[in-house]
Each structure stands twice: as C-alpha cells, then as structure tokens.
Amino acid sequence: MQIAKAVSMKKPHIFLRMQAERESNIGGEYDQNSSPSFDSTSSQKDLEDDHLTTDHDHTVSDTGDASRSGNDETEEPLADVHVAETMKQFADWLVFPDCEKKDEKTAKQHVVQVKKVLSIVGGGTCLQSLLDVKQIRDVFLRHYAEVKYHPATIKSYLMSLQHFCSFLLGETPSGVAFEKDNVISLRERIKNWSGSYKRDTTRRRWEKMEEDFSVLITPEKITAFNRSQAVRQAIIILGELSGAHNFEITQAKYTLVRDYLIAQIMIDNANRAGVVAYMTIQEFQRARPEDDRHVVRVLHHKTVNTHGPAQIVLTNHLYNHLKMFLKEMHSRLPLTGLAEGNAKVFLSWGGKKMESSQMSKALSSVFQKAGIDGPMSHTLYRKSAVSECHQKP
C-alpha cells in the first residue's frame, strides 16, 4: 500500500495532525540570533556522518528485491584471478536479459552472497566447491547459515546459488570446470532446499510482526520528537540561514538539519526509505502545488514498475525548509558524479549519495538526539502508520 497515494490532497493527512502544533511551537524561533549549542555527544555523532557507509549486506529475496532480513557480512576479498573474473562475468550476466535484467543493486547483492558461500566452503578461491552438494548442504547450510541467519536470509542465499548455476549453464565460463548434468541436478536440489524453509520463514514472519508490534512508533513519540531540543536547534539553524548568506556550515549543523528534514518527510508521508534517498533536486523543483501543499513525484524507487512514481507530500512549511536547505547547505557540498539537477536532495557531508540503509541510520540518529527511546526506521514507521490507520473507525 502506498500511503501517500491513499491520502486525499484536499484533506489533512492523518500524520499531519501534529503539524499545526509543531509549527506553533517553533514559529518564533526564526527571530533568535543565538546559534544553538550542541552537546559533545551529538557533535561527535555528527562528525561520524561519513561513516554511515552503504550497507551492501541486505539480502535479496526470491523475487530479486532487497529483503528485510539482512546479514552483517562484508564482501570477501578475492585473491584468485579466475574467481575474480568469473564473479565479474556473473555480475554482468545478472543484468542481461538472460536473467531478467536485474537492477544493479540486486545484481551486486547476488554476487556478494555467492562470494560469501565461496568463502565458507572453498576458502574464497575454489570455485569447484560451489558445485559440491555436500559442502553446500553440510558446511554452509547446517553448520553456518542455520546458526547465523534467519530462514528468509538462507532462502536468499540459496536463490543466489540458483542464479549462479543458471549462469554456469548459460555462459560456461572458462574459470569453472563442470558437467552440465551435475549443475542441473544441483540447481534442482538447491530449489528443493529453499522450499524446505517455507514453514520456518512463515513462522519467523509472525515472530517479527509480534516484535514490531511491541515497539510501534506512537503519535506520542512523534509529538515528543517535534517538541525536542534537537528539532528546535534544526529550526534555529534554518532560520539563521534565511537571513545570513555567510553563515558558517559545519558538519554537525548540516547533519542535524538534513536528518531533521528526513524525519519530517517520513512523519508526514510514511514512504519507504528508498523514496527519500533517491529524490533528486530536479524532482523537487518539479513539485506540483496542490492547495496548501506541494507534491513531489519520485521515479526511482523499489515499486516503480508496479505502482509508478512515488509521491512525497510536503506542506508549504516543510517545502520552504527544503528550499532553504538546498540553497544554503546542499549547494556548498562537493558534489560527486552527477550534474547538480540529477543530484540527490540528501547527501553525505562528503557530497556522496546516500542509500536506503543510510536513511534509516540518519533517522535513528536524529531521534536519539531528540531523546526518543526505542528502535526507529522507515519500515517500522510505515508499519506503525498502517496500524494507526486500521484503528481508525
């Protein structure tokens, strides 16, 4: 369900019901001349902004999309030249029509997961071990994966291995010697293994729902966040920016304002993290005014092929904050790669694009600064939003 699409543009969003209170709480703060003070803990967390590195360890689901049941592994170095070349060919094959043209992120994750299996069963160098049924079943599945991962993550690894088998059959890379019938047989066995985890996956899904239900983000937490000193500091900085073009931009101030804006977009829209991460300056500039709001349409996101562009609904207040942020803060960053119009709205302090996982880390960071206890992520807030909607008469 796309929550932003379910909301009438002519009626207040149910998650904007605290908006008037928030704006009244901060309405007079633009006139303050004193800069906000940052405690040492908050400053140190801000200075670690560039360490919010992209998490490439989220697993890939059976359909090829990023799964929620990620793991904490890092990509294994490949010392063998044949292994490196084979994995490069595998990565290229994944984005070809032969494999339904997987997107770059999904393809990369499949490669990372096959490399991980290789590091467990073949020391990272013996590609033949990926075709050894007993090694994969006994060493990787039983003694490693079933101890370390949730069922959905295990299924994701098995899907990556199935793709690798299909790659071998279709491309016959020179770095791997194999019998065609053996690879076909292995692929079928891996498929059967994956099916055997269906019951465990369902059970884990219900367990996760219960866990999430116990930590849902309540309207009271959102109200406390909007009244917090961290939010007031962010608003003061934006106010000072509007009247002083020579205002000094520090990393601590930039990350606080950026993370505050990310949080407000989430509160008002309950979008997926990727929608906010991939919103470009050009898309923001094309926002359509509707009554007292502006609607931004984001094309690059997870479900664009089935649901079309995602919508981000901005109040005039938040829209103006974002304009000020782009004009006075974003413009001073060292942009890397894309032209300014195609640059993302939210970047790291070093001018690099932020991935979905970094959005959630930024969100969690600003809520911690606001003194709000408990886990915080875009996914959890979306679940909380749906739960809140279902409770409405």
TrEMBL record:
Gene3D superfamilies (UniProt xref): Intergrase catalytic core
Listed GO MF terms: DNA binding
Positions with biased composition (Polar residues): 31-44
Composition skew (Basic and acidic residues), residue ranges: 45-60
Region entry Disordered, spans: 20-77
UniProt key word DNA-binding: yes
Protein's recorded name: Core-binding (CB) domain-containing protein
